[in-house]
Write a structure and sequence with these properties.
Layout lengths: L1 E10 L6 E7 L4 E6 L2 H11 L9 H11 L3 E11 L2 E10 L2 E7 L1 H11 L3 E3 L1 H7 L1 E2 L2 H17 L2 H4 E2 L3 E2 L3
Parallel strand pairs: 4-7
Antiparallel strand pairs: 1-2, 1-7, 2-3, 3-8, 4-5, 5-6, 9-10
């Protein structure tokens, strides 16, 4: 799994639909997830630490978790099927852990309110992310190719044909 942070909300240039943009810690990959206007407002509200006069839905869920003594350990965006992302809230109450199915936008809005980490499965990142820093990707690939071109078989083999680990 890869921990990601909310980079912000963007608008699709073609259809003007809001997108929540997640980025990995090195800001090398971005994961765009299309959401609706209400979901965008909920995420922006959390990013800006806005406190509504009365609890909105995500605030209500946070309040319920707190009253029941539950902590949100993390959010996991675990799959994408036919362009739809799937997520779970990973909550804990004492020693009891529960996974609660959620839309990624709701999970993100709740995680932001509770300062909980957002994790994405590697397969989802591989399938749906876009490169952010192509130069860094190309530099890393060039360094790896250079490493491969300079390595000799005896550099990999130790004694009885085992791979060296260090």
């Amino acid at each position: 799994m890869i921990e990601m942070k909310v980079a912000g909300i963007a608008l699709d240039a073609v259809n003007r639909s809001p997108i929540v943009l997640l980025k990995d810690g090195k800001e090398r990959r971005a994961l765009p997830i299309y959401i609706n206007q209400d979901q965008a407002k909920a995420i922006i509200g959390a990013l800006e630490n806005q406190k509504p006069p009365r609890p909105l839905t995500h605030d209500l869920i946070v309040n319920i978790l707190e009253v029941w003594g539950m902590t949100l350990e993390k959010v996991v965006i675990h799959s994408i099927q036919d362009g739809t992302f799937y997520a779970v809230l990973c909550a804990r109450q004492g020693e009891v852990k529960k996974e609660i199915d959620a839309r990624p936008s709701d999970a993100i809005a709740i995680a932001l309110r509770l300062n909980s980490p957002i994790w994405v499965m590697e397969e989802v990142v591989a399938d749906a992310s876009i490169p952010v820093d192509r130069e860094a990707d190309e530099a890393e690939l060039k360094a790896f190719r250079e490493f491969l071109s300079n390595i000799r078989p005896e550099d990999l083999i130790q004694g009885g044909g085992e791979f060296r680990t260090g």
